[in-house]
Specification:
By secondary structure, this protein is of the alpha+beta class. The chain has three helices and eleven strands, in the order E-E-E-E-E-H-E-E-E-E-E-H-E-H. It holds the Pfam family GCV_H.
C-alpha cells in the first residue's frame, strides 16, 4: 500500500521503530521500512551482528547510520540471528535503493514464530500508525 508517498507492502509486519518483518518458512527476514530510510537519508553504515546472537523482543541489537542520523535496531521477536546481509558492509545504500528486497538486513530464527502476530500488520493498523508518525516527525 502507498501512504502519503511511502511504500508499505501489505504482506509485511512492522515493528514500531520502522523495521519490517517477512516470514520465509521458519525464518523471519527483517529490514528498514520505506518511511525510515527516507527519513534517515543515505545510509552509510549498518552494524551486522554475528550469527547466533541472541535477541530479546524490544532490546537493541544493531545500529544503522546515515550522514544525519544514528538509529538503533530493536529485536521484533525473541530468537537469534541466523545471518546478516553481508553486502550491506560494503554497499549500505542498498537499503535506500531497495529496502524491501536487496536491502534486507537480518535473517532471524524466532523462538516462537507466533510472536510476529503481535507486530503492526494490515491497512487498518499500519495506516493510522504511519500517519501518526508522519505528523510527529514533521513537527520535529
Amino acid at each position: 500500500m502507498e501512504i502519503q508517498g511511502y511504500n508499505m507492502p501489505d504482506d509485511l509486519y512492522y515493528e514500531e521503530h520502522h523495521f519490517w518483518v517477512r516470514t520465509d518458512g521458519n525464518i523471519l527476514v527483517m529490514g528498514m521500512d520505506d518511511f525510515a530510510q527516507q527519513l534517515a537519508g543515505m545510509i552509510v553504515y549498518v552494524q551486522l551482528p554475528f550469527e547466533g546472537k541472541a535477541l530479546q523482543t524490544g532490546k537493541k541489537f544493531a545500529k544503522v547510520e546515515s550522514g544525519k542520523w544514528l538509529g538503533i535496531v530493536y529485536a521484533p521477536v525473541d530468537g537469534e540471528i541466523e545471518s546478516s546481509n553481508q553486502e550491506l558492509a560494503t554497499i549500505p545504500t542498498l537499503i535506500n535503493e531497495d529496502c524491501y528486497g536487496a536491502g534486507w538486513m537480518f535473517r532471524i530464527r524466532p523462538k516462537d514464530a507466533a510472536q510476529v502476530q503481535k507486530l503492526i500488520h494490515g491497512r487498518e493498523t499500519v495506516e493510522p500508525w504511519l500517519l501518526a508518525d508522519i505528523a510527529r516527525y514533521k513537527k520535529d
